[in-house]
Amino acid sequence: MTGDTKVVERGKGDQIYINTSGIGIVHEKANIKIQNIQENDVIIINVPIASHGMAIMSGREGLEFESDILSDTINLNHIVLDLIEKFGDKIHFVRDATRGGLTSVLHEIATEINLGVFLFEDKIKVENQVKSACEVLGLDPLYVSNEGIFVYVAAPEIKDEVLTILQKVNSNASAIGFVTDEYLSKIIIESSFGGKRVVNPLVDEQLPRIC
């Protein structure tokens, strides 16, 4: 069971808020912990990034685009359960990429296990209208909050099977990179032109709290 605290505007908190609570069991096939991550493990995400954060921010700022930016909020428990039941302990780590975005999760991985993370920029999908909103507000989508995204770190031999399952739900599910014994405790991202750069950790939140 978990809980959270909400800060609301004066006079806006006069009703009941039920938030972030759940009861469950540890699946017998699951062995998910950050220490299980190994060199050459594949990193997979299930949907395009930054949609939730930019849906909230564009609404706050009154930005209008050709099509609305929709939050990525979805129910993840069934797809996560399906993958655990099929692949068991070959799934080494699962984490939602909420506050701090995709980068914050990957930096946690890199620093905790003292290995590197190598990403392919063109594999990290961002919807066009989300890109536009990020450009207008001067934000990097790698750091923008998500709500319905999970990061899978899994044994490389199950990559194709995992993607086949995820892409039945969202065709943009993608293997975005891998764990490496180079670049220890760092994230390196390679552009479509072959250039490489370091992705720095987020020191301060780059936008106001949205959740």
From TrEMBL:
Entry keyword set: Lyase
Annotated InterPro entries: HypE, PurM-like_C_dom, PurM-like_C_sf
EC number(s) given by UniProt: 4.2.1.-
Presence of the UniProt keyword Lyase in the record: yes
GO BP annotation list: protein maturation
A Pfam short name: AIRS_C
Lineage: superkingdom: Bacteria
GO molecular function: lyase activity
Record has Nucleotidyltransferase as a keyword: no
Domain PurM-like C-terminal: 38-184
Protein name: Carbamoyl dehydratase HypE
Source organism of the structure: Flavobacterium bizetiae
